Amino acid sequence: MKGLVRRVLPPLLAFLVICCVYAGVHLALGTQPFVHSDYDSYTLQALAWREGRMSLGRDYPHLELAVFEGDWYVSFPPVPSLVQLPLTLLFGRETPDGLLVKLYVAGAFWILYDYFRRTRKLGPWASSLWALFLVFASDMVSVSLDGGVWYQAQTLNFLLLVAAFAAMTRRRPTLSCVLYALAVGCRPFTARFGPVLLMVYLKQKQRPRLWPGLAAGLCIAACYAAYNYARFGNPFEFGHNYLPEFTRVETGQFSLAYVAGNIQTFLFGLPFSVENGVWTLNPFGFSMFLCNPVLWMTLVWLIEAAVRRRLRPQMVLCWCLMLTHLFCLLLHKSFGGFQFGARYTLELIPYALAMLHFAPRRAPRAWEATVFSLALAFNAAGAYLLNR
């Protein structure tokens, strides 16, 4: 009995931390944690599908909709709408978006706990702490308070990515490829994580066949291409290029012209500014290193591994791939708009997970646990300040 308690108690306590943070922030804000979001265009898309339409047929001025040939389309990749589709049969327009994003976070936590416990062979406490910190000591707190279209994409993408990674480490490449392809259908930049999964696969001594997974992933990609072509006449166009925000400017959605400003804000920006002696939260983002400290920790891990002569080529490759992904994000005009921190950089955290995978296994050190704990509290407080 004592052994069972020692195994079960750590992950339950870590998960309880997540639940208590949600409860505390929602109570402080006076908001309901599971309600439908007014900014959920995925449910509108699912309802349109049920009527046999790909367009929404009318404008919703408060939503980010692509305007193409006199009609309005959801400008985001379609996978989160697949989740909403069966829910519309039960809830109609009022799907429980707030619950969905929290379930995605909970799923990511338990998947990572299982990965560290079974694959990395860490103890219950170490596995619980790594899972808690990687999932929740980040922008994920503020992103998962509300079920808006942006937040569903971000949280589901994170869940699918860590699930794909964990599946590949368990020698299940077909499942991993399918989950990875579905993640791309939430956040297309996720496609850049593919080489990491391939590295995990190639490092294994006994490798199952990869081609069934590749074939399944390509079939899913073909569905995206067909859907995009049917809507916009372009297999690579999900709709963002037709947002009024980007059609009104000559530089469009992506441009080198945005990099300098994004670097200034999302690498070196501060969370608060002072106006007339009053401290004001910057509601359109600040340094990713403050809200997502695991991203600067990756450099510390590399330096430490090099000093101790434990540096592995896969760690360096993962870090370089993460930098490439970050540069592509910096090319984007909006970088997430209204937010606490730098929510786009949540999709960089799986690279940190991969670096841990290729490094010698260990529990979080005292200084790491301290930084992560402060980051969790910081993001919880920021989520309240942003939404009050």
Molecular structure report:
- It contains 17 helices and 4 strands.
- With 388 residues, it is mainly alpha-helical.
- The strands form 2 sheets. It has a two-stranded antiparallel ribbon. A two-stranded antiparallel ribbon has the order 3-4.
- β1 and β2 (71-74) form a beta hairpin.
- α1 runs parallel beside α5, α7 packs parallel to α9 and α15 (313-330) packs antiparallel against α16.
Net shape? globular
- Strand elements, count: 4
Mean pLDDT equals 95
Range of helix content: 55-70%
Order of helices and strands: HHEEHHHHHHHHHHEEHHHHH
- Taking pLDDT < 50 over at least 5 consecutive residues as the criterion, the unreliable ranges are none
Chain oligomer state: single chain
Strand order, sheet with most strands: 1-2
Strand-pairing-aware structural class: mainly alpha
What is the distance, rounded to the nearest whole angstrom, between the alpha carbons of the first and last residues? 45 Å
Please tell me how large the radius of gyration is: 21 Å
Number of helices: 17
Features:
388 residues; mainly alpha; two-stranded antiparallel ribbon; 17 helices; 4 strands
Describe the structure concisely.
By secondary structure, the chain is mostly helical. The protein has helices at 2-29, 41-50, 79-91, 97-119, 124-136, 140-143, 149-169, 173-184, 194-203, 211-232, 244-247, 259-266, 288-291, 294-307, 313-330, 349-358, 366-387; strands at residues 65-68, 71-74, 272-275, 278-281. Helix content is 61%, strand content 4%.
Helices, strands, pairings?
Elements lengths: L1 H28 L11 H10 L14 E4 L2 E4 L4 H13 L5 H23 L4 H13 L3 H4 L5 H21 L3 H12 L9 H10 L7 H22 L11 H4 L11 H8 L5 E4 L2 E4 L6 H4 L2 H14 L5 H18 L18 H10 L7 H22 L1
Antiparallel strand pairs: 1-2, 3-4
